[in-house]
Design brief:
Elements (H helix, E strand, L loop, with lengths): L4 E8 L6 H9 L5 E8 L6 H11 L4 E3 L10 H11 L7 E5 L4 E2 L3 H12 L3 E10 L4 E5 L22 E3 H13 L9 H11 L4 E12 L11 H13 L2 H8 L8 H12 L2 H10 L7 H12 L4
Parallel strand pairs: 1-2, 1-4, 2-3, 6-9
Antiparallel strand pairs: 4-8, 5-9, 6-7, 6-8
Helix pairs in contact: 9-10, 10-11
Length: 303
Amino acid sequence: MLNPKVAVLLATYNGAAHCETQLISILWQRGVDVHVYARDDGSRDATPAILRDWAARHPGRMTIIDNNGVSTGSANGNFFALLRAIDPEPYDYVAFADQDDVWTPDKLVRAVDRLVQDGAEGYSSDLIAYKTAANSAWVLHKAGHFADLDYLFQGGSAGCTYVLTSRAAKTAAGVMAQAPAFCSDPSHDWILYAICRSRGMKWVRDRGAEILYRQHASNQYGAKRGLAEVGAKLQTVRSRWYHDHILWMRHVVLGSEIERTVLDAVARGSLSDRWWLVRQARRFRRTRGYVAQLRIAIALGMI
């Protein structure tokens, strides 16, 4: 495919310190025809002015989506507002971008090549986390092996690595238009992944890393390592956010018999349900370590 057309959805909020670097890396992608759609979620810094300046200097390549004075209060809500606002039909693919990362010049063309080669509708990848202040960087391995029901319990990778076909993006937008109010602080990457996988859309995971995933004090989630990662996951599980998000997924998955069986077991949470979920855990997570963690959480009644 010669220069496929890619709509890039950029969600911003108080991103003046980094968003120009990200815009440079997006607009100068090689081998694709990029159009950026940016929506600001009510920034109190210079971000809106920066976006207006870039849109004025790059007419035909960047569009600002007016928030009409409405703040969603989260990057996830902002991304879904963007997805509802655009028409994916004129594009071959739709990609998602955080405001503070840096993309390598071949980030999108690599994703498109993999989607075409694998006949897939969704793409995600590994990425490189880095801290400028600490002069450190490390690879976040997100690929792993597919598990048939992993989408009920986790996303495909960080959402900023995602590229969807136009059809997949349109399907996701339609599903979200019918979905009820979000659970607390929804994960757009998890939800998008579940919508696609539940409907039998092929997904490809790339072990390549074409995003420099900036780590700083204002990251909404960020990347953690070692005991910090374990502690963050434990806190998430103990807060019941993970449990509630799993159950909310029933509003966006197709609702097959096995999906209903799993989600009903999580909802009831009886001893027999938890024992059944423990035995099924290999179908829910992609690595041995995460399967083991999930089994412990289920057995202790935290999920």
